[in-house]
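User: These chains co-purify. Model them together.
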Amino acid sequence: MGNGSFEPKLVGFLCNWCSYTGADLAGTARMTYAPNMRIIRVMCSGRVDPQFVLKAFKEGADGVLISGCHPGDCHYKEGNYKALRRHKLLSKMLDQFGIERDRFRLEWVSAAEGAKFQQVCDEFTEQMRALGPLNLNGGINEHSEA
Amino acid sequence: MSTAKPKVAFYWCASCGGCEEAIVDLAEDILKVTAAVDIVFWPVALDFKKSDVEAMEDGSIAVSFINGAVRLSEQEEMVKLLRRKSGLVVAFGSCSHLGGIPGLGNFWNKETIFNYAYHKSPSTENPDRTVPLEETTLEDGKVLTLPKFYDTVYALHQVIDVDYYLPGCAPPKHLIMNAVMAILEGKLPPKGSVLSPNKSLCDDCDRNDSKPEKLAITEVKRPWEVEMDNETCFLAQGIICMGPATRTGCDERCIKGNMPCRGCFGPTDQVYDQGTKFLAAFASILDTDDEAEIDKIVDTIHDPAGTFYRFSLPSSILRRKRLETVK
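Assistant: Joint model of the two components:
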């Protein structure tokens, strides 16, 4: 595939209460994991506007992760369920844009699951490396035909 | 022709002609317009040519109203010419404002569209497999040309600088007259404004009172699948209505005709991407937290991209389907 030297760019929206703390735990516990994820802390996975996801793809992300508290554990009671419903519908829509479903991932990571965060980062990075660059900005979306 | 009346041009690009119809539908009010301005170019109604426009001084047309999206090289050339000759350019109607219905072509490309239109569509009879070519040489050596057909459809502001936007498919009469009068009286809002109120359709909707405290959708139905109640909020009936993510000002023409909003006015100023904004709102009101149940409801939403971006695909964040995945 010639993707040997390709380093995927990943954007991760992590909720303040569980997943960001989980990522922090991975750090303080000195777990090593792929450095490809650019983390953006949000107050809740339900705060992630689908516009953010498209913008991330548009600006060069090869994969986007939303990560929040496990079902039932949301600090705001049901924000993560909103994230879940949006993830399902947005994944279906991204398909129609030719953006593979695997590129848009939703994971529940609690504040105690540093190891899970490590595993998600490694797995997602390898998966995107195999899938190759998204290359949305390869000239096709700008007015360049004339 | 030495009147001091401001000069006005109308032009159409990739459009259906409905916007031209909207101007004709001004009925007697068009007399007010023609009394105040000189129409110097209007291909659908008047016999002026491109050369007439070329002969005008730059900036001499007070305002050009351009409808339709840009998908051909000819359209690009014409709008660039009109931009040079005009003081103001108003994008007239959804296609010009957002990309519109022709903008749904951005799920395809030139090759797939030609293949369907000239070969595969059930109503096509084309045994010689003739397709339009940009250049054809005749037997006598003469060369005929056609405009280039782009892979991607563009909203007007993606091709030229646009001063104002008149939304709608087609723009309603009162908004057209307001815009024309504002221009004539020099009472224009800041450049780049959409000439319609900046709030969502639901704000003005007659059915807003019938909306329950908490909308909860368990199944999504399309208008033809049910007998629609003509007083209740469409979303409360499980019918996709783009009202929450769409700008108002249309006078609820569709709602009054008992049809849900399809989003032709585009988003409000606060929203960049109408489709995902609607998606966010709509997914939030699906009435279940269970994964399998969510999957089941999502299955009943056919063509989310085409529905949520029905009028705004070219001006959305992604603008089109990834070209390399179009088959």
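Chain B has a mean pLDDT of 95.
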